[in-house]
Every structure is written in C-alpha cells, then in structure tokens.
Amino acid sequence: MPLLLDPSTALAAALAAIAAAVYLYYYSPQANQPDVHPLQLARQSSVAPVRESQSETPVLRSKTTPDSTPLLASPPAIATLCDALLSTCSLHRPDALQYIVDEKVCRISDDVVASRAAGLASGLLLRLEASKPSAAIFLPGLPEFLVAYRACISAGIAAIPIFAAASPSAAHAILRHSKTRILITTPALAMSLADLVASTSVAHLVITGELDGSSPADSLRKAVAVVSFAELEASDPSKSNTVDVAPSDPAYVLYSTDEESQALRGVVITHANVLAAVAGLMANLPANQVLTNKDVFMSTAPMSNAANLTFINAALVYGCSICILETTDAESFATHAYSFCPTFTYLEPLITRDLVQLFYSHVVKYPKLEYNIFMAGYRRVVDSLMRGITPKWSFWDFAYFRHYRNVIGGKLRLMYIDGPSTPSKSIEWLRTMHGAHVIPLFGSDQTTAVVTAGAFYDYASAIDTHNVGAPLACNEIKLVDSDAALGLTANDKPYARGAIAVRGPNVATTLWNADHPAEDKLNNGWLELPFFGELLPNGTIDVIGSRQTVMRSALVPSGHLFVERLERALSSSRAVTDLCVVVSDPSSKKLAIVAHPRPMELFAAAKRMKKEYKMKIIDQFPWCADYIRDKLVDTARSTGYAWLADIPLENINVKLVPEPFSVKNNLAMVDGSNNREFARNLASASLSK
C-alpha cells in the first residue's frame, strides 16, 4: 500500500517550498540593506567653499582629505620604493612572482627575486658612467622585466620602459632622446634594432638570452658591449657602491608624444610621485579591503603601461604576489587566471572589451528558456547593485555567476579599468558576472596614470551616469573654461564643463632631457590636462573627450563632435565588440564607423533572416553592414544622440572588420586606444561614396 502524506504535512511542505522559492527569487538578492548608507555616496568629493574665478569650478577633493587639510603624500613609514622593497624582503613566499611557460605556471620565491635583482643592480652600477643614470627596459611580459625594474629602483637608476609592441623606429627615437647607456631587451627585439643602435648613446646591451651568429647580431656586437642577463645577475652586490635614493629621485620615465607640439617627451616619475599615487588608490578603499601580502596582482597589460606600472608599484609597496600574463586575449586571460587566483588586476581597454565579449558569447548560446532564466537573474543582480546592495547567496549565484567567477580564479575582488574608454554596459556586465568591485580610473602619464577612481561601494557609478569617480586623496581637481570655440564653461547648465586641471604630489614636474621642464606648464601647481570633463551632481567627473579627438563637425548641432564619448555610447550596443567613428572633414555630412561585430549577434540575425555570411570576409556581405548600422542607429537614439539617428542612412557608412581591434591588425594603439589614422584609411572608400 503506498505511503500517503498527512494533508497538513503536505500543505506545510508546499508552503515551505513556495517560501523558499520566493526567498531565492526575490528576497535573498534584494531585500538587504545597502552596504553603506546612501548619503555617504550622495556627494563623493569635498568642494571648496569658494572658487577663484567665474571661469573655473570650485576645487574638488577626496572626502578623505577635505579642503584645508594636507593632500595624502605616501603610505605610512615609506619614503621611497627602496624602502618598500626592503620592508617586503622578510616574507619568504614561494610564489612572489608567477608566470606562464609552455602553458605551465612557474613560480619564483621572494628570496630568488630579491637575489636576482640585487645581482643585476650591482652589474648595472658597474657599467654606468652617466651623471643621470638610466636604463631602458625593452621587454615583453617576462619575469626579467620585473627583476630589471626592481634592480633599477634599488640602484637609483631611472628605468625607461618601452612597449615591446613599439616599432623599431619608435624604440630608436626613445633611445636617442633619453641618451641612456644601457638597453635591456630580448635577442629578437635587439636584432630589430641592429641597424639603429649605433646612432644612439647605448653602450651596453643586456640580453635575456644569447645572440646568434647572424649578420645583425654581428652588427650589434660591433656597436655595443653585449652581456647576458644571467651574467649580470651573477654579479656580487658587495662589489658595487651603496646608493642613497631620495624621494625626489627619478623612479622611471614615461615616454609619449606631446599633445601640442607632437614632439617626443619623457615624463619623470619620482619615488614621491609613485608613493602618492599608491597612497591615493589605497585611501579609496575601506580599511578591510586595503592590500596585504596575501593579495595577488595579475598584470595583464604591458608592463610598460603607465597605469599597470602604478599597480605593480602598489603590489611592491604592500608585498603582494605578482602574476605576469601580458595578453589582450580573453580566452588566455580566463585560462590562466584560474591557475593564478588573482585578487586584483588592472584591465586595459582591449582586454576589457574582449572579456565582456567572451562571456556574453557563452551566455547567448544558452537554449532560449535557460537564456531567459539567466537574464532574469542578471536583471535582479543589476537591480540590487543599483540600490547599493551586494547580492548575497541566491539561485542565480549558485547556478550561473559563481561559475563565471571561478573561471577567473574565484577570488578576484578588485578589477580596475580605464574609465573614459569603457562603456557603461561593459562595466555593468563585469560587475554582475564576476562579483568584483569594478573601479573606473582616470589619469595621464604626467599624473602617474591616476587622479580619480570610482568609490568602492558605488556599484551604480559609471552605469546610470558614466563617470570616472572623484579625486583621489592625493589630488585636487577643478574644471576651467576651455577654448571659446568649444563652448565648455564652468557655468554650463545643467552641469559645469571644461578642461580638467589637477595638482598634487603625484603630478610630475620634470621632463627627461628637456630644455623646458614640465613645471613651466604648471600654474601655481595646477596642470591642465588635455582632457575635457563634466562635473556631475554627486561630485564625480565624466571625461567627455580629449583635445586630440574632439573635432569640428557639421553633423553635430553644437558644431563639435566629442568622438570618444560617441564611441562609448555606441559601444553599449550588443551588436558590436569594437568600433571607431571617422569623420572625413568638418564640413562633411557623412559619417563612417569601422566596427567588429559580435559573431553571435550576426549568427542569430543570419538565422532569423535566412542569410549567409562568413566572418573572415565579412565586408563582402552588404547586409551585415546594413544590419549593424541599424543597430547602432537604434543605440544612438536610446543614448541621447538623436542627431546621429536623424542622419540619412545612406550617409552612415559602416565598414566591418573580421577581427577585434588589436595592435597586430593596426586597429588599436599600444595603450589600447583606437588607431584613428588606420581606421580613417579603412573607411576612406566608404566616405567617398
């Protein structure tokens, strides 16, 4: 005889099941109190009581260092990066430095890294004759970069990092301008400079390997003294003089092209600049989130990248382990992040876009019912974040989001990104999928790459209103009236707009081998950056463009097109991964967009419309360009760019490319920004139609 449940027991079980379902579906992710009181985020910067003139806004400061208090200058008890390296020597961790060789994780202990750096520092000092000691580090993402960087720091040598992706002519120009005597590089990169080194000041070539017997190698041996990296590492530190390093001494030199003169310039970042930037970043975190020697930093951007170098410095100051994974490929990022288990990272624009695309492409492959269930959970999490709540355990977290967190190690809690170039939808996606605090940053080479950062508990920042946060505790910021033609003023309504001016101990004041130091451009300590900003009501700043990319255009009612802001808005479309807007000249009534479409978006459209296409030859299928154009126009209409939606469709030409933007295909620069000149050349045919 079958066992029958008592009716009251069955009813209680049913009610319990319903209550559990309601809890899992609704209350668990949403019905908690906000992580911090909303009033704490209502105003994210301290404002000066008065402003100096009507042509500028009041001065903004971090609430950590309000008006009339000193700006934060360095972490406690540390005056130089040398002090930081000495304070972490006693950690003796077996995995202080991690990297990948042949798809396997290799680990180096604190003791070995310190020993290698000390030997290299000694070897470098014995070969220096210059009054301004420096060494160029022309290396890809290898452990030798970090060893060389640490050696330069401890020996008082100014490190001059050069992007490994830089062309031989660009690297040669930096070597000539810097007048450095030492070049540290790989055999392959050295060979690319074989015909150029003789015309520089380089006297010593330090190779991470061995030169072969080829003709270019012979040329190098004749031009400079060649020594292996391993040989210098074996140097006896006791045979070199002890070097005293002061806070005002150069730590490294960041080379770039001056926005105004287009001339090459090297910005000298001192130890004091570095420590101020690190202190400012850490002051932006709650006390229980500040870095410790238990944290693991994953370096995915080129180690020469200014922002990435700042986070390497933060890892060195706080004794964090460092994982080296230089990549712009999200598959590689996810594969190796699982092994590294990082707790914080900095993602440059290229890898950020690719990571969003990678996980989105997995989600859209779900069966329709499962996709709808996932999106219901996604919307619930977004709703919680927008109300200041970190979603706790829920059905969706258990079924979906926990899996995506685990793919990148499961421990990532801080994800720093380039704020101005990352679309709001991408920030929303990263916060929701990975459960990490995604913090947008803004800065320039001359500000040690950081001046603002999103607030830790402001999960809605850069989603509801795109912004890059408030000033760090080491900075103060104001907006000043820009060129009259642009019409950006401190009295604009509804929000003040203008050129971004900054000052603070992280602002560099010296240029390397320059006739006129950077401080000549400072006005009472204020540096006007080549960027325009908008001051939002909560005391945060939205970067609306740069001097280099703003252009006059007959297409825009105001007469000026802020290209980067438009690209950021259009990039929120799920139809594209990367895009670059091109306008031929100020009087043109046509617009071109170079874009890489999302493969799954086209796949679904082709299936629905019963059409064919091949991604490798995507430009041979006109319907694809028309489809992407229509999607971008819809996005423009929904994001406040009605003027673009009103342009006749025949005047909007879309050029599709089969691969994501990268340095390899010339669609991106080494800093992750769009290669606008190359995109213009690609789009020239469509603009001339």
TrEMBL record:
Its EC number is 6.2.1.3. The keyword ATP-binding applies. Residues 112-512 form the AMP-dependent synthetase/ligase domain. It comes from the Eukaryota. It is an enzyme of class 6 (ligase). One of its GO terms (molecular function) is long-chain fatty acid-CoA ligase activity. Signal peptide: none annotated. One of its GO terms (cellular component) is membrane. Residues 43-68 are annotated as: Disordered. Pfam families: AMP-binding (PF00501). Keywords: ATP-binding, Ligase, Nucleotide-binding. This is Medium-chain fatty acid-CoA ligase faa2. The gene is FAA2_5.
